[in-house]
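# nightly structure sweep
# worker-07 picked up a monomer target from the shared queue
# config: single-sequence mode, recycle default, output format = structure tokens
# input follows
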Amino acid sequence: MARQIRGDIQGLRAVAVAVVIAAHAGVVLLPGGFVGVDVFFVVSGYLISSLLYREVLITGEVSIGQFWARRARRILPAATLVTVVTVLASLAYMSLIDARQTVVDATWASVFAANIHFAQEGVSYFASDISHSPFQHYWSLAVEEQFYLVWPLMLFGVLMLTRLATGRNPQRLPRATVAVLLVVVIVVSLGWSIHQTVASPTTAYFSTFTRAWELGIGALIALVPTSAIKRLPRRDLEAMAAIGAAAVITACLVITSATPFPGIAAILPVGGTALLLLAGHAHGVTAVGRVLSTEPFRIVGDWSYSLYLWHWPCLVIPQAALGRTLSAFEAALAILVTVTLSAYSYQYVEMPFRNGRPAHRLPRRRALVLYPASASLVLLVAGGAWLWTGVQANDNDNPAITVDGQTGTPQVDTVALVRASVNAARSRQGIPGQTSPSLIDIKKSVADVGECDYQQNVRKLCQVGVEDGTKTLVLIGDSHARAWIPAFDLINQAGDWKAYYFVKPQCTAAHVPIAALGSDERFTDCSDFQDWVMEQVRYLRPDLVVVSSSPPVNGVFDGDRRVATTEGIIPLLRVGYDELFLELQSAAEEVVLLRDVPKNADDPADCLTTGDPSLGDCMFTPVPRSQILGDVAVESASAIGVRVVDPTPWLCYQGECPIVIGNTLSYRDSDHITTEYAANLWATLGRAMRMIPTNGIPDPTNPDEAVAGGSEG
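# output follows
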């Protein structure tokens, strides 16, 4: 076991951080550069376990407090500095909404639970948009810190059990027992990783349980006696190092964002790193090791922690400020800033807490105070940032747009209010001071689906609406259909309907095989869901089926070929809608297509909460692709005899779509209407759907009218 960090390991760290930064900066030759994180995991498992094993050999025990204190001095100072600076930079350069979310992310990062947070949020590490969190890279720090928390306790437990079994303190490391424990952890974790990579890719990527085997591999290598490696012929060590280096390089070149990961694919970079560590485990220097031990590699390896911390916010925050991905020159400039910041933080933050005056003043267990101190500082900054964003979001007294003094009720003319809102935007009026939802909460405006969240592959029926309603409604579609649920909830109450909402995000309603988001693979869960939905419709025999769906985002399949062009999608989508409507007509009394809403090219939330925008700055014209593919559904429905309800006049006027209608925010993102605006449209939609009378209906949003209506019925 090495008594100091080997030069080849520092070089390996340099390679790992370099490929991660290159991949994140958009270097096309290294699509799999993100596997550098897996290299870090193996190296961390190796180094940390080497320290723990050596302590057992010297003292016969593990000092958990001292171990955690060393980790605190090593990790917390630089991580805290980057966290605080990132929060402040986010306030300065990001929209209020993104900055507020950054505050939440920083809080999770400060307690080393970022991986849990991003998994719960359903964040895609490989998302192609620019809305990444500046703290997304902290997920790997969280995994390592969770490992540092648990692994010493497990090793301590092994020593205690050995002591109980033998009746005395172990004089040497119980290698066989530790090896068995590590093999079990590795096998179980790898198996879980392979399973979860297929079953729940987002969770699999961020989960400590799916990554524990990578750290365990490093810990297992550290357990190998150096004498066993010394007995190997020189040519075998050279071959191990060469094969290991080739495996890591190959992983960076051939693994892509479309590769299911970690799972089986992670074996390539992890195995390569393991071979490189083994080849130098007995202090022998291979040809690869000599290259990795050269001064440039060692310097980058020394800075690798700071480089990793700084690179992501240096890339993400400028993207958010510019509202687009960085050009090659801009990305290079961001990397230059990263290197500069890393050099300073390594010299003036990392090193002092490791070997300088702060390290001497915080010896051993006293350094544990860094954990609460770091969290407290971050929470203090985050709390202030949270309050500041809330104040900024409501810092004006601009009036709402009205028609005859009304901003949006069942009695107001919806089309007239939209027209007035467009005219207000054209005249560059300011954003109303009080909006529904509030600007800061716009992203939270998502309809609740209760227990029947079909995004999670639930297979059950959930009846809503009037429990013993005389008529049955079925709503079918994707997240765009889900956005209409608040309107249908009110329509159900006013019109005596019981309802079932079969909505699955990203699953286009048309019976056509679609590609999963961000992948070249089929979205098989969608096809399975469509089959199940048709079974339920045939069973329910509803009075009305409403179809509402967006076009496929990532293309459709023609046989085994993915088709992504608009021209190629049109005929396949038309066939899919024809099949859907014909099947529904045979199982329901009536079928209605609720045409898809117009799509914005940009996220209106960014416009509304960046700088000092007017209504005109955030008004948009619909994206042509969405309009064209929306016409396909309309043409199919019209040809088959399915009635079409077009909500465009309730959202746009003369080809322009305001983001604020009255005092209500109409869209929560580029293509989903807010729950509040959907609820405002309940009467307009209900009449268009012929689900409620054209007049004289009780208003379920008004308790007095709802009670009166119920008593009259």
